[in-house]
């Protein structure tokens, strides 16, 4: 290996290490969907992004489902299908263009009989600010 090849390989390794260490230090965004449905109803959630399928999860009453990711280039989109005995829906539960300004580190959603309510995490207030509302469609299996 000649000197210039060695230099290029060493430079690539250094840059790779810098990129990896920087990626680990980036803050992780979390999406949390609470089951606040009446009558101890279970909530089925299935979330996906363009390149990741998070699978289907059944959430018990007064519990939640959570996933996290690093939004490196501010272009993330996660959509989720939700189903319970009172309705179904498929909607965006994290969209960089909307949620990077309304969710500081955690996007909180509450599944209620009325619909799924997005809680603005950026504005600290009591009661919390509901700034996105998704209404239930007719019940159907996901």
UniProtKB/TrEMBL annotation:
<dbReference type="GO" id="GO:0060320">
    <property type="term" value="P:rejection of self pollen"/>
</dbReference>
<protein>
    <recommendedName>
        <fullName>S-protein homolog</fullName>
    </recommendedName>
</protein>
<keyword id="KW-0732">Signal</keyword>
<dbReference type="InterPro" id="IPR010264">
    <property type="entry name" value="Self-incomp_S1"/>
</dbReference>
<keyword id="KW-0964">Secreted</keyword>
<keyword id="KW-0713">Self-incompatibility</keyword>
<dbReference type="Pfam" id="PF05938">
    <property type="entry name" value="Self-incomp_S1"/>
</dbReference>
<feature type="signal peptide">
    <location>
        <begin position="1"/>
        <end position="25"/>
    </location>
</feature>
<dbReference type="GO" id="GO:0005576">
    <property type="term" value="C:extracellular region"/>
</dbReference>
<comment type="similarity">
    <text>Belongs to the plant self-incompatibility (S1) protein family.</text>
</comment>
